[in-house]
Automatic annotation (TrEMBL):
Residues 24-96 form the Rhodanese domain. The lineage of its organism: Bacteria, Pseudomonadati, Thermodesulfobacteriota, Desulfobulbia, Desulfobulbales. PROSITE patterns: RHODANESE_3. It holds the Pfam family Rhodanese. This is Rhodanese domain-containing protein. PANTHER family: FAD-DEPENDENT OXIDOREDUCTASE, PYRIDINE NUCLEOTIDE-DISULPHIDE OXIDOREDUCTASE.
Length: 125
């Protein structure tokens, strides 16, 4: 695995980049790796929830050929999940660099889930 990708910060996407990615790609998947307890406080629609500690056992639930944006209340855990997924051969994975409050705004936005298809997906991968 090429650690340069992480060392240069290429694994992260901003909130606006993530929203644009979802608008422009019907295939993009948000992966929530928060614990069950954390997810119990705020649930998001249209998001795949697999706690980080369950990720190895539930790897088969993830799409293999779709961009994945991982998030958590801790960017560290989301980055760990992204690192793990890349090591497992899922390379179109990025980490959402956003606070919990920003995530609530993103996932409640009608802008994001109107999803207009576009060919510009470079920031998702």
């Amino acid at each position: 695995m090429d650690l340069q990708f992480f060392a240069e910060g290429k694994h992260g996407v901003t909130l606006n980049m993530a929203a644009d990615c979802l608008e422009n790609s019907e295939d993009a998947v948000f992966l929530d790796v928060r614990t069950e307890e954390e997810a119990g406080f705020v649930r998001f629609k249209n998001v795949l929830h697999i706690p980080l500690n369950q990720l190895p056992d539930r790897l088969g639930e993830l799409p293999q050929n779709q961009p994945i944006i991982v998030f958590c209340t801790s960017v560290v855990r989301a980055s760990m999940a992204a690192f793990y997924l890349r090591a497992e051969g899922i390379t179109a994975v990025r980490t959402l660099l956003a606070s919990s409050e920003e995530m609530v705004k993103l996932f409640s936005s009608s802008r994001v889930f109107s999803r207009k298809t576009s060919t510009n997906q470079q920031q998702c991968n």
